[in-house]
Amino acid sequence: MHLLFKVRKRPLSKKETARKEDDIVTVSENALTVHEPKQKVDLTAYVEKHEFCFDAVLDQQVTNDEVYRVTVEPIVPIIFQRAKATCFAYGQTDVISLQPLPLRAAEDLVRYLHQPVYRNQKFKLWLGYFEIYGGKLYDLLSDRK
Fold first, then answer.
1. Are 97 and 58 in contact, with CB atoms under 8 Å apart?
2. Which of 19, 75, 87, 131 could form a disulfide with 138 if both were Cys (CB 3.0 to 4.6 A apart)?
3. Beta bridge pairs of residue 143
4. Which residues pair with 34 in a beta bridge?
5. Which helix (H) or strand (E) holds 78?
6. Would you list the DSSP string of 87-107?
7. Cβ distance 58 to 70 under 8 Å?
8. d(CA 129, CA 103)
9. Are 70 and 104 in contact, with CB atoms under 8 Å apart?
10. Does residue 129 contact residue 122 with C-beta atoms inside 8 Å?
């Protein structure tokens, strides 16, 4: 089993921007750094840096096309090597903007299923699309039931 961890930095919310809050996260190719403002006992301000490494880090300017290309698209061919795959998106805000990604993945999977090399191999495809919100699980393929 191979696990890939990829992260996309979210932009500041409108409320955060209105309150003139600082963006304390910086992004590099495979790392995300949180610059945490702190205060010493003598009230001297300083910044503690926390670096987190991932297989890929995307900043808030990337498009959903780029998110799909980097995170989901590489998984599709692996499924046809008899592997299982899961894409998990988590976020406190704006996860709704990622809704086109499962549809694109389904389209790519169906496109693969129709290729001559896979057409007669009796592949079975199960697809789930869920949202967890407020401690409740919603099936997004069944009118949120």
1. no
2. 131
3. none
4. 25, 50
5. helix 75-79
6. -----SS-GGGGTHHHHHHHH
7. yes
8. 10
9. no
10. no
| Three-class secondary structure of residue 22 per DSSP | coil
Type of residue found at 57: V
Over residues 18-69, the pLDDT tens digits come to: 999 999 999 988 899 999 999 999 999 999 999 999 888 988 888 888 888 9
Record the tokens describing residue 16, joined without a space: 């955060």
> pLDDT digits over 85-137, tens only?
877 777 655 555 666 788 888 899 999 988 888 888 877 777 777 888 888 88
CB 47 within 8 A of CB 35: yes
User: pTM score, two decimals?
Assistant: 0.72
The C-alpha R_g of the chain, in whole angstroms, comes to 20
Cβ–Cβ under 8 Å, residues 134 and 98: no
- Longest CA–CA separation in the chain, Å: 72
Cβ distance 101 to 42 under 8 Å? no
Lookup: tokens for 70: 């980097």
- Cβ burial of 105 (10 Å; 0-12, 13-18, 19+) is buried
Residues 6+ away with beta carbon under 8 Å from 61: none
Separation CA 114–CA 87 (nearest Å): 22
